[in-house]
DNA sequence: TCTGAAAATGGACCTTT
DNA sequence: AAAGGTCCATTTTCAGA
């Protein structure tokens, strides 16, 4: 189980994964070795999924973020699995959620321009019989972006 | 400007930010010092926004991902800015996009349970006159999650 | 590109609860 | 046992020649 030390560590490394273990140690009041052990353990257990660099899309030629909602025809497991796979494999799809509500999927795309998005639309949606309808929202402003889980120490 | 070496480096560190610079060097065919310089430069320029650890929400008591779309009453700049600010400050909101299309905002929440979400809903939406309507989609499956920009070397 | 100093990581080992 | 601390070897980073 996770204690407050772990929770604090997770908070820190979600904000900045480059903080050194000795710096983390002073911040959470542990020895560097203990920090090392805890990080290592959480990584092994999958609590820490992975470490990553967040790239500014507009600085590398991908200024467009597009969000799609999709409704499917059939919710048969094997048909859905094929769809999910095709979304997973598409590098321009950053995120894919299978949801309950008015829609079945929510997708977030990172693309160079609208033409690229339209092309993907053709490949992924129009040529797929199981897509009943979809809607497109174009992001004008990425107000907040991240995957931070709001873990917080229970006391302090 | 970014050349193919930079592009490859970005690809690598988006996948695993812990890859050592010497390992990166062999992968992209550069000296470790050159890799160091390039990473440092891209971080300074903001091409690399930051380094982060991705935490598995379900392993730390945040198993619920909820997606909301919002339509506002007024799109007056100052009113919008206040809304954006309130979303930015809410730790359970991982992502917020200001969009064009049928809706004005798309929000992605990471919460402990539905009660927590309902509470936020009251605070953020019901007590805000500028929220005309909103819709909720509950994620049953986070099929793909990340913020990877699909940078790819132009040849090879 | 190479070399080397400073820093960070992570294991060994002992101590505490 | 389980977890913390100290010490030390190895690896990594990163600046200067």
How would you describe this structure to a colleague?
With 156 residues, chain A is α+β, with helices and mostly antiparallel strands. Chain A folds into two domains: 4-44, Arc Repressor Mutant, subunit A (Orthogonal Bundle), CATH 1.10.10; 57-138, Lrp/AsnC effector binding domain/regulation of amino acid metabolism (RAM) domain (Alpha-Beta Plaits, 2-Layer Sandwich), CATH 3.30.70.920. Helices cover 38% and strands 29% of the residues of chain A. Chain A is built from five helices and five strands. The first copy, chain A, has helices at 4-15, 21-28, 32-45, 77-89, 114-126; strands spanning 48-55, 64-72, 93-100, 105-111, 131-144. The first copy, chain A, has a four-stranded antiparallel β-sheet with strand order 3-4-2-5. Chain A is elongated and about 55 Å long. The two termini of chain A are 19 Å apart. The mean pLDDT of chain A is 96. At the A-B interface, helix 1, strand 1, strand 2, helix 4 and strand 3 of A face helix 1, strand 1, strand 2, helix 4 and strand 3 of B. Chain A binds a DNA duplex (17 and 17 nucleotides) through helix 3. Chains A, B: Keywords: DNA-binding, Transcription, Transcription regulation.
């Amino acid at each position: 189980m996770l204690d407050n030390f772990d929770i604090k560590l997770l908070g820190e490394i979600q904000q900045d994964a480059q903080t050194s273990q000795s710096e983390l140690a002073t911040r959470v009041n542990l020895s560097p070795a203990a920090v090392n052990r805890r990080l290592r353990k959480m990584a092994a257990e999958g609590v820490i999924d992975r470490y990553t660099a967040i790239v500014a899309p507009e600085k590398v030629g991908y200024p467009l973020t597009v969000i799609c909602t999709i409704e499917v025809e059939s919710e048969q497991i094997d048909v859905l699995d094929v769809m999910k796979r095709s979304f997973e494999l598409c590098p321009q799809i950053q995120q894919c959620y299978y949801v309950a509500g008015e829609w079945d999927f929510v997708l977030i795309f990172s693309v160079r321009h609208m033409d690229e998005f339209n092309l993907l639309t053709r490949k992924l949606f129009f040529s797929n019989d199981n897509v009943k309808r979809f809607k497109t929202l174009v992001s004008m402003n990425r107000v907040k972006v991240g995957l931070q889980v709001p873990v917080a120490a229970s006391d302090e």
